[in-house]
Design goal:
9-stranded mixed beta sheet, alpha+beta, globular, 363 residues, 8 helices, two-stranded antiparallel sheet
Length: 363
Amino acid sequence: MTAQQRLYMPDTIVAGLPNTLHWSDAPLNHQEWHVFPFPQPLGQPPLSDSLVCKELEAALVRTEGGVTQTAMQIKNMPSQDRLRRIRRCVTLFQNLAAYGSPDGAGVATVAHGAPANHTIHTCRPVGHRLELPSRWQQAKVLDKLFPWFVVHDRRTPAAMTSEPSVQDEVHAQIIEPLNMLLETRYVSSAGQATHNLFYPQWGRSCPRAHRNPGSNTNAGFPDFLLYIGSERNQNTAIIEVKTWWAYPNSDLTSIFSTQVAARGSGAFTWGANETPSTLLKQLWGELYFFGADWGACTNGQKIFIFIKTDRNELTLSEFHDFHDNPLVHKALLGMCFASIDQRGGARYITESLCPLQNRESLW
């Protein structure tokens, strides 16, 4: 990849760490960007060698319960649009990390009709090529990203007292760096009326972004929504946040069980009311009502990514640790890239990142 195509992660911009870039790879020339790559802070403990989420801890005084009831508009959504099948794809998380990784390896295209011996990467998708940002824009992002990384590496997360407190940490540890990293890949699509904003960006969902504007703001709204523009119907991904005491890890892992979906067929019962089933209905409803195909969900301890692979089918990645896991940010960034590139006309995204032969319901 050329310097202009380079995608930067914090663990590639600190001197002395693995895969440190030489200044010649910098977005600007040596004279203009002479401190690149950034040095380890002098006289301070060294920075971590990768970007990972910090472990969250619950306060002794905290909310209890908090399981979300299925919103009426989701419960009563048109029968032909309801979730009917659950699949698991064990390669999805890793493929998304590879799709946007700085080394540019990419993922092999396995879709029917795709070019032979071809790999897709966010900087070289098949089909429409979204414009890459200038080197100057990338440099400005690095100027913001490095101090954020230093603060993140040094900070201690707040005590978790409620679902909003977990949302705050997800925003601080995930949403903020994702929004900066998106600027290393895309030219802003903000219109003249919003020229001071940068799109794509993650933000809070709002009624105007809903399929039915003016809907009840408590009814099936994701915690975070990826906007690719300032107009309506420009949403490509969602993130939903729960707590691990309301949605324990056992509830998440039981999604891949016969009590939620039939073995083999993956058939899902829409009327089921167990916690794992109501969570899946909530996620499906959020995708449906906000026009997105991709998403992620975390309870603060585990995280998984999911994609709508057919009109009535949802495919999930395996569950991964939320904290101390260098794959999390890379996979989530790859999800952002994939959802945006797919909306921009890139072909074979779903088929290559979530291959049909790798989707199964064998639990």
